[in-house]
Amino acid sequence: MFGGIEAGGTKMICVVGFDPDHILSQTTIPTTTPSETIAAIITFFRDSQQRFDSIEAIGVAAFGPVDVNPESASYGQVGLTPKLTWQGFNWVQALQEAFALRVYVDTDVNGAALGEWSWGAAQNLDTFLYITVGTGIGGGGMVNGNLLHGRFHPEMGHIRLPHDRQRDPFAGCCPYHGDCLEGLASGEAMRQRWGTPAQNLPPAHPAWELEAEYLALALSNFIFTFSPQRILLGGGVMKQPGLLDSIRRKTLQYCAGYLTYLADEIESLITSPHLGDLAGSCGALALAARGHDLERRENHLV
Fold this sequence. Notes:
alpha/beta; Nucleotidyltransferase, domain 5; 2 domains; 5-stranded mixed β-sheet
């Protein structure tokens, strides 16, 4: 049995269990200050330990930037997030001080990707991407069977896109890059551009045509760069009816026939996560299970 934390910018979803079908306990905690939030998280897991068998490890699928290198002295530490009070907070340190457990940390999108690989729409794949389009935009996934890391974790929401300022004079909302993908196509960008949250915009509003174009431009770049077997599109913005089909059509347009297989495979290539809103929390469980199993195998070999 494992513990999982989907650490979001507005709320933390904490779970205890084995997999999506066997969640024994769950709670949602508002994301306020680190001291207040972590105190509530610790209380939840202590209560869970008293009610159930012991928890083997805890996984954290966290908003970024965050240090995801287990060999780093600052593993689990939050970087220059816009949530200023969380800058410098260390998930591993805080949880290991409270529990004698191993703690495994990755980004929220990598966690969701691992959840989908373990139990959802990416099972049996070794190269795929998970893109979330919500208040912000983030991306993660697997390449050749390994979660996508490098010098740092991916920041797919900050790629640059063509921006026709005559058609779309909105300057973008990213505090660092202005009109990057997140600055142009996130839920916050839509709110600022159109003066109302995305969910309030009617289906015929021109916002959705523009949104599909920006996301299709990004996906065509990712298809050429990573050659993924599948791209999963999650997040609140993607709940808009018809948006997924529009993105598929425009992605084909921007790929311009260069990849001959796309026309026949576009619906399976670009699709929705199967775990839905459970992807993040179950991904955190999967992080704990994967890390625990890898460590056991390494110790056995030693």
